[in-house]
């Protein structure tokens, strides 16, 4: 005769396993968001240095130092982890090359935008990228993008527009030259498309490639591309400028590790809205380094952006709770 406890125990273990899986998914979601936000801060610091150096330093030289100086910390970090061989090994060299070329185009155009526009303006224009990422994730990766994620991205983009309004000063653009401002905006938009494509390719590569190899081959391809421009355009930096140029690579390399790792723990469409936090950092750095003082509309836009990101977290939590209740009810 079968004991009732023998029937209940397996069901209990199944329920516990499901709850453990749910908790793991939730922890991965928060980890992905944390890594994304931290990478956004480091990238904003890097962009501020590009803006500061851009008046005298050619874009190709900026790209070279950004990439070449990222290689030592990347290799050191993964060597300490015992992952150096995994860093060099790749199953998809053409996929790595394709991502690298997208990154080259995105980096050159982004730096060109930063050298022609104020930091907040260039950063804000680049925030068309999350919208493009969500669309590409649905089309190329076949990810299921719920309506609330679309809504969060759109609302976040509206917040970016609100923050951008105070910076769209006609007199300012007349002072720096309409052609320069137009070129900067065009470079920014092109960079947004390249960045969205890079995100999608990163998501595809993480299915078979290690984070270390993705970061390494990105830095290698962009270093070679930047080095190719040096014979044609070179500026001899002062010691202070040289330190800032080297910092570009360190900040960018560490930020890239965090960014790539974030896409290992969540889908591109879930964490794309958190790209918007980079604008908050850009506004703070713009004020500290260049004297750009945000007005009331900037704070309003920041609140909209933050609210959109928090809504994604809250909504994901509600979906998980509903799923748990449904599974518990079926046990």
Q: From N to C, what is the helix and strand string?
A: HHHHHHHHHHHHHHH
Measured as a percent range, the helix fraction is over 70%
What oligomeric state do the depicted chains represent? single chain
Work out the number of β strands.
Answer: 0
Question: What is the radius of gyration computed over CA atoms, rounded to a whole number of angstroms?
Answer: 22 Å
**What's the rounded overall pLDDT mean?**
79
Structural class: mainly alpha
Give the overall shape. globular
Number of helices: 15
Largest sheet: none
Q: In total, how many domains does the architecture comprise?
A: 1
User: Which stretches of 5+ consecutive residues score pLDDT under 50?
Assistant: none
Proportion of residues in extended strands: under 5%
First-to-last CA distance: 23 Å
Could you characterize the architecture of this molecule?
The mean pLDDT is 79. This protein is mostly helical and 331 residues long. The protein contains 15 helices and no strands. The radius of gyration is 22 Å and the shape is globular. The chain has one domain (36-330).
Q: Which secondary structure elements does this structure contain, and how are they paired or packed?
A:
Blueprint: H1 4-53, H2 59-68, H3 71-80, H4 84-88, H5 93-114, H6 119-125, H7 129-139, H8 147-164, H9 170-176, H10 178-205, H11 211-227, H12 239-265, H13 268-271, H14 277-290, H15 296-330
Helix pairs in contact: 1-12, 1-14, 1-15, 2-5, 2-11, 2-12, 3-11, 3-12, 5-10, 5-11, 6-14, 7-10, 8-15, 11-12
């Amino acid at each position: 005769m079968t004991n009732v406890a023998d029937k209940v125990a397996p069901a209990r273990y199944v329920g516990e396993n499901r709850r453990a899986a749910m908790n793991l998914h939730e922890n991965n979601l928060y980890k992905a968001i944390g890594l994304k936000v931290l990478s956004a801060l480091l990238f904003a610091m890097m962009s501020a240095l590009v803006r500061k150096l851009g008046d005298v330093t050619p874009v190709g030289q900026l790209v070279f130092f950004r990439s070449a100086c990222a290689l030592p910390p990347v290799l050191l970090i993964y060597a300490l982890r015992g992952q150096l061989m995994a860093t060099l090994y790749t199953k998809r060299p053409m996929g790595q090359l394709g991502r690298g070329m997208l990154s080259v185009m995105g980096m050159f155009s982004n730096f060109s935008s930063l050298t022609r526009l104020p930091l907040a303006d260039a950063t804000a224009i680049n925030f068309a990228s999350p919208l493009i990422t969500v669309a590409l994730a649905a089309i190329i990766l076949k990810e299921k993008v719920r309506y609330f994620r679309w809504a969060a991205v759109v609302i976040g983009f509206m917040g970016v527009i609100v923050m951008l309004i105070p910076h769209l000063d006609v007199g300012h653009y007349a002072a720096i030259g309409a052609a320069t401002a137009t070129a900067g905006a065009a470079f920014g938009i092109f960079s947004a498309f390249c960045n969205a494509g890079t995100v999608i390719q990163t998501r595809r590569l993480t299915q078979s490639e290690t984070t270390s190899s993705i970061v390494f081959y990105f830095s290698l391809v962009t270093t070679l591309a930047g080095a190719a421009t040096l014979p044609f355009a070179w500026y001899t930096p002062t010691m202070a400028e040289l330190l800032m140029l080297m910092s570009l690579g360190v900040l960018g390399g560490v930020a890239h590790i965090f960014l790539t790792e974030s896409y290992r723990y969540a889908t591109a469409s879930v964490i794309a809205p958190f790209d918007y936090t980079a604008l908050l950092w850009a506004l703070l750095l713009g004020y500290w380094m260049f004297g750009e003082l945000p007005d009331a509309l900037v704070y309003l836009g920041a609140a909209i952006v933050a609210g959109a990101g928090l809504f994604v977290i809250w909504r994901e939590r509600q979906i998980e709770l509903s799923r748990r209740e449904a599974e518990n009810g079926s046990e």
